[in-house]
């Protein structure tokens, strides 16, 4: 049985090969299954890979979450290697000598990490809160979508299981007892901070787009375009035109679709 | 209490000797004043049957067991019927020990040839428990069990088992068992279970949680049927990060709802080292009425034993199975597919070693057959004869088998034979087999894989197997 050390070595060795042609990005079904936080993370990884100009194919699977080595979506399969989540994938790509942060000095790099953590710890958690704790959203959207891939009665069991996991996580982070207003405030102050950092520039850093831009794009774009019974998060984001501009720009540049009305 | 000393004239009846051995009755041969009588010619009438020691056990089920005894006409019949009644009482599972006493009947109502039979029973206590070790197919485990036998007085029991295995699998099982009265010896078992299992040969592990219902009965005295339904949530995940992608693709939670019918006819004279008789077992499984796993799986196991000389037994065995999809929307996971190879199956191969592999993980196929020709003999020079040595057998074998992915509907009969024959795996070898209680068998064999495929994982040399059901 391979030990974690051998795992690590094989990942390091694999990293030396060039970017394979048949890279696939696995994520849940977009139309009927995926939830807001997962969708945001999947979009962030897609944006990052596009910014790096790396080829990949999106492969929807109903059990993507279980296939992922970390239990979270998305993950990519490159040759024999599987990497999950934005951080892991960024590291894997960096290992191949491709990086979006080469032009940054150390201070900027630590800034970048700090802002990425901020997005992860505020916006993503707020999305989880809205999806799983807000009763209206849970009943009308989350439970229906999350359970859509399971037969009865497994759908109810899986919904409850997942809900318990999320509640546990939120309790650890001290978010479970927050009211909706407090959650809105957290999101608002996070957007404020991002907006201040962006300072009407094209991207967060002058050298061009980085993984931070990809992550912010993933989350904000999803928040703005996902129809939910409660669209207060989208309302808050709309108050920051500089962030909206960033999202629009990345969408036009990398996803080459007509910019939807945000 | 009077005791009947009866002696049979030599060779007059073999039944009695056998009966005496089974019941532990001793014939006192040395007593000088023994009168020789032919028990078949002693007319008797069973006047009264006493059952002593009944507490919470209900009368009706005990009556069912002993009723036949009243019909006995002669003394030998009484002995045989009393023995049969004792076996039946034992099968109820309510009693710890059962003693049988036969006496002449006394008192006002006694008839001339009257007998009085007394069953002295001791009931199980309300709750029993224990820690034991258990041997399953290639795994040993520690088992903690609790039992509440005979809770409502008709043999119903609740049992709880928790086991922790040598391969770090832990299992939980809570079962309620209810035997029914009647000649079909029916019984019903409802259980709630959780089972962890790891399959290193296929690179996955699985947690199963669910409900199982099993209804068993005999349609004739030896033909046993078992109708089962199980509703199980199965969480399949990869065992390591480096598991092959084909296994990773199947990770996830699914719900299996399956009906199963098992028909078995066991005419063997022993479970572990039979010397004569055969076993036929046919299993049909239909999954997909509810749930998202769907398939039809049919399997057959056949075994025949022939005694060549007194202690030399030739065993032929055959297993075959075929799995078909039910519909396109229902899944068939790696856990449902068919595998052969390993010390309990086709020896000389790794467990699940025959057939398609992906990065070392066995993927299984939808059809298989495996056959074995075994010769069991006592140990050379027969050390420990009549005692310890009888637990061992020398074992020579030839195993063959094949797996395939095909659909029976799409091929003709001629093609089928070709598919079954082409690329057949063959191995042979010899070893020693050891009986473990009356439950399991250990085999240590030296194997020579003779014909195998590129993708197979062979295991030449010494192979160790422990299990309940062997090919």
UniProtKB/TrEMBL annotation, chain A:
Per the database record, which ranges form the Mitochondrial outer membrane transport complex Sam37/metaxin N-terminal domain? Answer: 42-161
**Keyword Mitochondrion among UniProt keywords:** yes
Q: Where in the cell is it found?
A: Mitochondrion outer membrane
Classify the source by domain of life: Eukaryota
Which Pfam family, just one, is annotated for this protein? Answer: GST_C_6
- List the keywords (alphabetical): Membrane, Mitochondrion, Mitochondrion outer membrane, Protein transport, Transport
Q: Does the keyword ATP-binding apply?
A: no
Q: Which GO terms describe its biological process?
A: mitochondrion organization; protein transport
Task: Give me the Gene Ontology terms describing cellular component.
Answer: SAM complex
Boundaries of each Metaxin glutathione S-transferase domain copy? 188-250
Q: Which family does it belong to?
A: Belongs to the metaxin family.
**Which PANTHER family does the UniProt entry name for this protein?**
METAXIN RELATED, METAXIN-2
Name of the molecule in the record: Metaxin 2
TrEMBL record, chain B:
Task: Give the domain of life.
Answer: Eukaryota
* Major subcellular site: mitochondrion
InterPro entries hit by this protein: Bac_surfAg_D15 (IPR000184), D15-like (IPR039910)
Q: Which UniProt keywords apply?
A: Membrane, Mitochondrion, Mitochondrion outer membrane, Transmembrane, Transmembrane beta strand
Specify the protein's topology with respect to the membrane: Multi-pass membrane protein
Q: Which GO terms describe its cellular component?
A: mitochondrial outer membrane
**Which residues belong to any copy of the Bacterial surface antigen (D15) domain?**
150-470
Q: Which GO terms describe its biological process?
A: mitochondrial respiratory chain complex assembly; protein insertion into mitochondrial outer membrane
Where does this one sit in the cell?
Mitochondrion outer membrane
What family does this belong to?
A: Belongs to the SAM50/omp85 family.
Output this protein's name: Bacterial surface antigen (D15) domain-containing protein
